[in-house]
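Continuing from the previous page of notes. For each protein in this section, the sequence appears first, followed by its structure tokens. Read the first protein now.
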Amino acid sequence: MPPTTRDVEDLVTALFTVADGLRRARRRIPDAAALSVLQMLTWAERHHPGRPVHPSDLATALDVHRSAVTRHLQALERSGHITLTADQADGRSWVVSLTGSGRAEVDRLTRVGLDRFATVVADWDAADVQTLARLLTRFARSQAEVAQRDPAPVRARRPRS
């Protein structure tokens, strides 16, 4: 039996409530945007080892303007978490790499985040946590399939005044 309109409304309300809570929590993380850059570099290393990562790749993946990524990269380089080197194939471009310190920081912050989520579900049964994870994974897969089949219209940019 397909879900009713009320079922879908309840789902949307729950998802937006959770998303809003996650957004608020992320705003309380010092330098959350820089953390996102570190996480994307970690993902790129894991899924595309040896492939150079450019600042424009990170901006695209994070759906932000390149200038925002540049500021974070400069701060991350100063803190020793990344290196920026000239791209051998294109001298005008830079390649971003994680350092050992950057990997250690991602690991530390990942543990902090996982500990926080573990606290949220501490009084849940393991089966409930597993069911929620399975259903959210299924939801994300369905969402991606719909987006591929029926892409949302591109948002029109507002003219600058």
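Done with the first. The second protein uses the same format. Note its length before scrolling.
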Amino acid sequence: METDDNTSVPHSWAELQAWRPEFPAIIDRSLKSIIRLIIQTHLQDGDELGGLIIGFMTSTHIDANDLMTLSYHDSHYGSQYFLRAVFERIVTLKYLLRNPYKVEDFLNYDAVDWEQILKGVHHLTGMSVGEPASSNISSRAKEARKKNKQEKCSV
């Protein structure tokens, strides 16, 4: 468990529990707190930043649970995917909290991705999102494409 620079790094669930026995209980309490916050938060109409926060918390709860499951089974490489996703959500949310005027741009840009994902799902399964979600995603994606034109490279 020791590295060349004498830093301790656990490499298995057993080592992690030996190193920080309180860790599983802390994570369990944190996950339960996230669920309580999600359930007890009532968003105001039009609170897009609040909606993003709740969405990020929901995704992070799922990812943290999967991260713990993979860690318990000593699957460090799989765990890194979830840890990165959580980290990216934190960075994105911190940016949007400091720059709330960018929330609309973020949602429009995010809609471009969702539009592509939903087209792929429809192509593979025939399933589609109902209204008004489909129209909302399409109009947000259209707005993002209008505002962020990509120039074609001539070379």
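What the second structure shows: The chain has a mean pLDDT of 90. Residues 48-72 form the longest helix (25 residues). We return to this in next week's lecture.
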